[in-house]
Amino acid sequence: MRLDFQSYPSENSWTDAPVHTTAFTRAPMSDVERPPVVDRDKRQAILDHAIETFAELGFRRTDVQVIADKAGVGKGTVYRYFGNKEDLFWASTREVLLRLEQHLVPTIEGVDGALAKLRAGSRAYASFFEANPSYLEMFVQERAEFRGSEPASHIEHHDRLIDRFSQIIDAGIGAGELRRVPVRRTLVALAGLLYGSVVHACYTSLRDQRTLTEMAEYAVDIFLEGIRAERTKGRRETEQ
């Protein structure tokens, strides 16, 4: 996990004032040094409308003033909370990632067995974007505009999800439910299949009567059958 250290003024910064024998003297922070007081409701409103606006107009065509107007705040408030337009975009995509994680984790934890968890997680992933197409558009915009140059906070999030799913696959291999496969490579392939299925369903006309979630689920089921241990395949066929 990467730590992103930033240079913020510290409240524990000592002054060059003369040192007394009884105590150090600390200078009070000026208004310039103090971080802005954040109103959580305003911050959330800005993020909600930023996601909506970036998804609709794209990064380059989005005007921060439009986001501020929709959120009912001044443009200066947006800049105080998020720095600049690019930082606001990254904060918005991180918000989507956090919402995705909050959607995935309870679903995965609600079932037992590696295959069941992988299927449930895949279905939750697809249904998340089917219910919120603007969230998917944010990632399309990210790739188009920034070519995958993600900030450390996003990489940490991806690493956290990879660790969680790695544990699921490791447990499945240990229990004999999955055959021995390279764990990270398998996860990268599964993630690519899922993302590709979702994007394909949203942006092409080559689809049948099934929903986006059903199409992704079908593709993932074929994938999972490929990593299922031989001794459990007959059981799956019997269950069907």
Question: Describe it for me?
Answer:
By secondary structure, this protein is an all-alpha fold. It folds into 2 domains: 35-83, Arc Repressor Mutant, subunit A (Orthogonal Bundle), CATH 1.10.10; 92-239, Tetracycline Repressor, domain 2. It is 67% helix and 0% strand. It has 10 helices and no strands. α1 packs across α4 (85-109) and α1 packs across α6 (133-146). It is elongated and about 60 Å long.
What share of the residues lie within helices? 55-70%
CATH superfamily of the largest domain: Tetracycline Repressor, domain 2
Q: What overall geometry do the principal axes of the alpha carbons give?
A: elongated
Task: Report Rg.
Answer: 23 Å
Helix tally equals: 10
Report how far apart the termini are. 41 Å
Average pLDDT across residues? 82
Condensed summary:
This protein is mainly alpha-helical and 240 residues long. It is built from 10 helices and no strands. The two termini are 41 Å apart.
Outline the secondary-structure elements.
Layout: H1 40-57, H2 64-71, H3 75-82, H4 85-109, H5 114-131, H6 133-146, H7 152-174, H8 183-203, H9 212-227, H10 230-239
